[in-house]
Design brief:
- It is built from 17 helices and eleven strands.
- The protein starts with a helix and ends with a helix.
- The longest helix is centred in the first third of the chain and has 20 residues.
- Strands 1-2-6-3-5-4 form a six-stranded mixed beta sheet, sandwiched between helices. A five-stranded mixed beta sheet has the order 7-11-8-10-9, sandwiched between helices.
- It is globular and about 65 Å long.
- With 441 residues, it is α+β, with helices and mostly antiparallel strands.
- β9 and β10 form a beta hairpin.
- α4 packs parallel to α9, α10 crosses α16 and α11 packs antiparallel against α12.
- Belongs to the peptidase M16 family.
- Keywords: Hydrolase, Metalloprotease, Protease, Signal, Zinc.
């Protein structure tokens, strides 16, 4: 009885937090097509100004990959009214921080300032959109920066080619087949005019959403937004191409040799539907069951109990059009990748044939409740969530309602979705091994 009361109390507490954290917002669209979302939170004297553009690696040409990520760097170079090299100095000199990131589907820029610098943040993002300086000096400078990033993150990093190799094998038609950092030879070959054309096409108000969150005066904020963003011309509407992948009906076998590793890895990958679907969310839960933490099924069985692997993991790589579900393991001698794969497959078959317990389902629900609360616990998190749900999901109120989808997922659904997507004839089987040349040395 005591345990029941404790569980009930915990559930009520989590539910109360989730309800209390409901995110209120106001949205409207300027005449030039820029969508604006405002969220007032006076709990701390800080604000965030952020712009998310609907452009990512999937919007690039096959012979000009890496452009979207390149612009993540290039658009900090300066504007007509912000001298080259001054962007970061202005932000830090006014008590702020800023950053940007790029995915296959979007690019996101933001500044966090004390609330008395809201106008400055809005002016800077409007400058980035209206007056960027795209010249050869900036292109050459950022080309070297990106090359160094690629060397550190991919070329010289252990297992750095794992995700790129998975993407290349899983997608044959869709631009998801290349990485966001792209190919350096493509960037080297591109002319200045190509970078300028990319900017003109994608970094326009009608391909973006502006989110302002924090300790704001809504009336004043709207006036500043109109003052700085309202004058930016609307761009030519973007026509997007649809890419369709044929279903995977037999195992894709592949091998990759990495000179930066000594321990091989076995990687199994399944193509999954858009992150906007219910199925994708069920797969999120399946990933949590299998490998989220040391109490997860794969870790407890293969790493802790049987000591067959040094590391085991599973995660969903969610995207706007398609996703991938990746399971990997690093065997511990004397066990092999085949031994680890056998254990992984056994656990997947269990999910396909047996219902998880009610206790495990409750544990899952609690984890997702906690994630929901944490994701909206800061103005930075709220701003990015508002941007993402509007731009990529087409439903901004998912910031409040998506948790209900996770709450409604059943044990039977988890079993059904595991059967639907996680079958040997629907996957990539990648043997990721040390380079033979290195092994000989």
């Amino acid at each position: 009885m005591k345990n029941i009361l404790m569980t009930l109390s915990a559930s009520l507490m989590l539910g109360g937090i989730a309800t209390a954290q409901k995110v209120t917002f106001e949205e409207y669209t300027l005449n030039n097509g820029l969508h604006v979302i405002l969220h007032n939170d006076p709990s701390a004297p800080t604000i965030i100004t952020s712009v998310m553009y609907h452009v990512g690696a999937k919007d690039e040409q096959p012979d000009r990959t890496g452009f979207a990520h390149f612009f993540e760097h290039l658009l900090f170079e300066g504007t007509e009214n912000i001298k080259r090299g001054e962007w970061m100095k202005i932000v830090s000199g006014n008590g702020g921080t800023n950053n940007a990131n790029t995915s296959e589907d979007r690019t996101y820029y933001y500044e966090v300032f004390p609330s008395n610098n809201l106008e400055l943040g809005l002016w800077m993002e409007a400058e980035r959109m209206l007056h960027p300086i795209i010249n050869q000096i900036g292109v050459d400078t950022q080309n070297e920066v990106v090359k160094e990033e690629k060397r550190l993150r991919y070329d010289n990093s252990p297992y750095g080619q794992l995700i790129p190799e998975v993407k290349k094998q899983m997608f044959k038609n869709h631009p998801y087949r290349w990485t966001t950092i792209g190919a350096m030879e493509h960037l080297d070959a591109a002319k200045l005019e190509e970078f300028q054309a990319f900017n003109k096409k994608f970094y326009i108000p009608n391909n973006a959403v502006l989110v302002v969150a924090g300790d704001i005066n809504t009336t004043q904020t709207k006036e500043w937004i109109e003052k700085y963003f309202g004058k930016i011309p609307k761009g030519t509407p973007i026509k997007r191409q649809t890419f369709v992948e044929e279903p995977i009906t037999q195992t894709i076998n592949a091998v990759y040799e990495d000179p930066n590793i000594q321990i091989p890895a076995i990687v199994t990958t399944y193509r999954t539907p858009s992150m906007k679907t219910r199925d994708a969310r069920v797969l999120d839960m399946i990933s949590t069951i299998l490998s989220d933490g040391k109490s997860s099924r794969l870790y407890k069985k293969i790493v802790d109990d049987k000591k067959m692997a040094l590391q085991i993991g599973a995660f969903t790589y969610n995207q706007e059009d398609y996703g991938t579900y990746i399971v990997y393991g690093l065997p511990q001698s004397p066990f092999t990748t085949e031994d680890v794969l056998k254990e992984i497959d056994e656990e997947i078959v269990k999910l396909q044939t047996e219902l998880i317990s009610e206790k495990d389902l409750q544990k899952l629900q609690n984890k997702y409740e906690n994630q929901y609360v944490n994701s909206n616990s800061s103005i930075e998190g709220v701003a990015e969530n508002l941007s993402t749900y509007y731009l990529l999901y087409g439903d901004i109120n998912l910031i409040n309602t998506e948790i209900e989808i996770y709450r409604s997922i059943t044990r039977e659904e988890i079993r059904t979705i595991a059967k639907k997507y996680l079958n040997p004839n629907q996957r990539l089987l990648l043997n990721y091994i040390p380079s033979k040349d290195k092994a000989q040395n």
